[in-house]
Amino acid sequence: GLTVTCAQCHNHKFDPIPNRDYYSLLGVFENTEPDKFPLAPADVVENYDKHKKALDEQKDVLKGFLDTQRNQLSDIFTEKAAGYITAAWQVLGPEKRSADDVVKSRPGLEPAVVQRWVRFLDPSQKREYAYLDAWNSLLGKGGSEAEAKKIAEEFQSLLLSVRKEQKELDAKNATLKARTGEGEMPKFIPIERSKYYLLKDLAEEPDTKTHKEAGPFYFSPEEVGHYLTSVYKDYFDALRARVDKMQADLPTEYAYFPVIKDKAKIRNLHVYIRGDKDNPGEEAPRQFLQILSLG
Question: Does the global pTM surpass 0.85?
Answer without folding.
Answer: no
